[in-house]
Specification:
With about 500 residues, the protein is mainly α. It is about 80% helix and about 0% strand.
Length: about 500
């Protein structure tokens, strides 16, 4: 066991109850600032596009640059944390993330904005894995699941409450305000980190695996670029996608070969001998592929097809946050008193059920139908994330945690990117198919065909109906995908959290 691991284990014994709570609050602020940032920026993209006179493809780099920076940095978080000490890296990341948010809000050109967003992704990458590791280490094992449940509120509620907040802030103060909101939250988290987070010993003698880091970063960044831009560029019909896919596969293959045959590699393959960790990161990929989809699909559907006002859409997304907050205080206790695998299975079934009912919607869908399915999704997401998180790391040797936690979140993010790319491609293609089928039933012979305005109205209605059919099919597709991982949960050892 490393010195850092020993130091963190000692912290769990010596910290007072009050200080543990302050550590937990600091970690929650950290999760909130990171998750809020991801969604708030997406909401403000149309306003940024106008300010920078950018095309849709150009403005998308504001999001892509952040994800690329995060992907590049998170792979080396474990090594940097060991070298600098976890508290030092945590506080430096919080300070840099907060200051760079200020620079993002003050950018005068698209090129400058993309650069700062890349650096924001680099500085923000360590925040979630480090905050989780800190929470796990400062709480005794018997209380770790409950503490993770409370910590998860900050990370999971952010994307849900961001739409109404983002729309309101942007309307009143413009798009720079979505970056400036990070300043007070980041300052609170930074002060909490300095005052309450326990220090760990730095491992000065640990060397970096340059070959492993280089091949992993290049491979992952290439795959991430492919996933982020594939839908816009029509996937393998694009030369860019073919190139990034080929580079990604080649470098990731080189990384795997190096990890299996080299010595002192970036990621120790021995950690995957732990059954819970190996299956846990597979299941978190499936979870990531589903958890962010409602905040992407529902605003588009409700605004473009059902014509709800943006403030109403923001309110209708809020029940997901309510579902998370309702289940967060009890999830940890239930996991301690029963088989936590039951909670994970129940969560997947709840998400699948919500999407199945969404697949029955029509263009007259009411607020109540949107609200209660969102509540079910929020509750199901929390029932999955907290017990699965605890089960994944419960039996893993503490010496692997510094590398295992960042990898866990890397897989979560890659799963989210893959899920979004798959679903958006499915939705686009199904919309085109439904439109073609409906159009076949419209005759060119009749009074309406000779009226240009009437034909335009028919085309709009056909497009709305085709869009609704495509959303129904997409929701059913997600419902099926959400239930598939449920049986594999029982491959995890039934460890009480």
């Amino acid at each position: 066991m490393t010195a850092a691991s020993q130091g963190t284990m000692a912290a769990a014994v010596t910290l007072s109850v009050g200080r543990r709570r302050m550590v937990l609050a600091t970690a929650m602020f950290t999760g909130a600032i990171y998750s809020l940032n991801l969604t708030l920026v997406s909401i403000s993209l149309p306003f940024m596009q106008g300010s920078f006179s950018a095309t849709p493809d150009q403005i998308s780099w504001v999001v892509t640059a952040f994800i690329v920076g995060m992907t590049a940095m998170i792979t080396s978080t474990g090594w940097i944390s060991a070298r600098l000490g976890r508290k030092r890296l945590y506080t430096l990341s919080l300070a840099a993330f907060t200051l760079i948010s200020l620079m993002c809000g003050n950018a005068d050109s698209l090129e400058e904005e993309v650069l700062w967003r890349f650096l924001q992704g680099v500085s923000g990458a360590p925040l979630i894995p480090l905050s989780q590791s800190i929470v796990i280490d400062v709480y005794p094992r018997a209380e770790s699941a409950r503490a993770l449940g409370i910590w998860a509120i900050g990370m999971m509620v952010g994307p849900v409450i961001a739409p109404p907040i983002g729309g309101w802030i942007t309307d009143l103060y413009g798009w720079p305000a979505v970056f400036f909101i990070n300043l007070p939250i980041g300052l609170c988290a930074f002060l909490g980190a300095i005052l309450f987070i326990p220090s760990t010993r730095a491992e000065r003698g640990r060397r970096i695996d340059a070959v492993g880091l280089g091949t992993l970063v290049v491979g992952l960044v290439a795959i991430q670029l492919m996933l982020n831009r594939g839908t816009r560029l029509d996937w393998f019909a694009s030369g860019e996608i073919l190139i990034t896919f080929s580079i990604g596969v080649a470098f990731l293959y080189a990384f795997v070969v190096h990890a299996l045959t080299g010595r002192d590699t970036l990621i120790d393959p021995a950690m995957f001998r732990d059954r819970n960790y190996a299956f846990g990161i597979c299941l978190i990929a499936f979870f990531g592929a589903q958890v962010f989809l409602p905040t992407l699909l529902l605003p588009l559907m409700l605004k473009n097809l059902v014509h709800y006002p943006i403030d109403m859409i923001g309110l209708l997304l809020a029940p997901r946050a309510l579902g998370i907050m309702i289940t967060s205080p009890i999830t940890g206790r239930l996991a301690q008193r029963s088989d936590p695998r039951l909670l994970v299975v129940a969560g997947f079934l709840m998400i699948s059920t919500s999407y199945w009912f969404m697949g029955q919607w029509n263009l007259d869908v009411g607020p109540w139908e949107v609200a209660w399915t969102g509540l079910l999704q929020g509750a199901g997401s929390n029932l999955i994330f907290v017990p699965l998180n605890a089960l994944t790391f419960r039996t893993l040797d503490g010496r692997y945690r510094g590398d295992a936690v960042p990898l866990f979140y890397l897989v979560l993010n890659l799963g989210a990117s893959a899920g979004i790319a798959t679903v958006m491609t499915y939705l686009t293609q199904d919309t085109q198919t439904a439109h073609a089928i409906l159009s076949e039933n419209i005759t060119l012979f009749g009074d309406a065909a000779r009226d240009t305005m009437a034909m335009a109205g028919i085309e709009r209605e056909v497009s709305r109906q085709a869009g609704m059919i495509a959303y129904n099919n997409t929701f059913i597709f997600i419902a099926v995908m959400a239930v598939l991982p449920a049986p594999f949960v029982y491959l995890l050892r039934p460890v009480r959290t």
